[in-house]
Structures are given as structure tokens and as C-alpha cells.
Amino acid sequence: MILGLLSDIFDGIIARRLNVSSPMLRRLDSGVDQFFWLSIVAGCYITCPQFFKDNLLKISLLVAMEAGCYAISYIRFGKEVATHAISSKFWTLVLLATMIQVTVSCSSVILFNICFYLGIATRIEIIGMLLIIKEWTNDIPTIYHAFLIRNGKEITRHKLFNG
């Protein structure tokens, strides 16, 4: 899991350093990220099905929110989500820690709850971004930046995160 996350982090950094990052590449990266996390969740489910049964409501809500992000993006723009929001990057780190804890102990209470609420907050932010921007845009750091983009203003991008 850790190696997969590290490769996900560094593939974007390397692509930006080599100036080969493009909107299509960012869209593909988002799709691969989804597959990566679905694979981890499937593996955790096989190993610890009771954890998923005990937390079915929260997990279902997270999945529904993620699906909502994709639905809104497809309905509005005909493309999948590729905001790569900074808050989502932090959520990914908490998600990784949660999945490691679940894999090791088949249990997670405090970390899972942090992961759940942070996941909901980041999905709400992404939905907000998708409703604010006028046309599909990748690499939107925050909802504040979505307002700037909507108003035709340039945004400052960080080379490591979204640039």
C-alpha cells in the first residue's frame, strides 16, 4: 500500500518536472488512483469482512459521495473528476493509515472516524468545485481557487502538488 501511494505521489511530480503532464494524463491518473484504492479496499474486505459490515453505513455514504462527484462531473462536463485537490491529498494519507490499521487488526475506530469525516469534507469540497467552475478544469487546489478560475483569474500552482 505504501509503495503504491509513493508511486502515485511521485508519478505526478515526475510528470510535471519533465513537462509531460497534460489534462488527459491527469484524467488517466485519477482513473488509476480509483482502481488502486478499490483494489486496496477489496483486499481489506476479503481479509476483514466484519469491519465493513460494522461500518457499512459510513462506507456506503463515502462511496455515494465519491460517485456523486463523478456523476456531477460527467453530467456537467462529460469528463471524470481530476481536481487533485490538496485536501484530498491529506485525506489519502489518512485513508492509507486507516487501511493499514484495518489490514493489521481488522479494526479501526478513531482513525476510521477521522478518515470518514475528512473524506466527506473533501467530497463536499470537490462537489463545490465542480458546481463553481464553468468548464472542466484539472488540478484545482481548493474551492477558493475554483472561484478564481470561475472569475477568469490565474491561480498559483505548487510544482509538487498541482502544477
From TrEMBL:
UniProt-listed InterPro entries: CDP-OH_P_trans, CDP-OH_PTrfase_TM_dom
Organism taxonomic ancestry: Bacteria, Pseudomonadati, Bacteroidota, Sphingobacteriia, Sphingobacteriales
Taxonomic superkingdom: Bacteria
UniProt-recorded Gene Ontology molecular function terms: phosphotransferase activity, for other substituted phosphate groups
Listed name of the protein: CDP-diacylglycerol--glycerol-3-phosphate 3-phosphatidyltransferase
Pfam families: CDP-OH_P_transf
A single cellular component GO annotation: membrane
UniProtKB keywords: Membrane, Transferase, Transmembrane, Transmembrane helix
Organism: Mucilaginibacter gossypii
Regions that span the bilayer: 34-52, 59-78, 90-120
Ribonucleoprotein found in the keyword field: no
GO biological process: phospholipid biosynthetic process
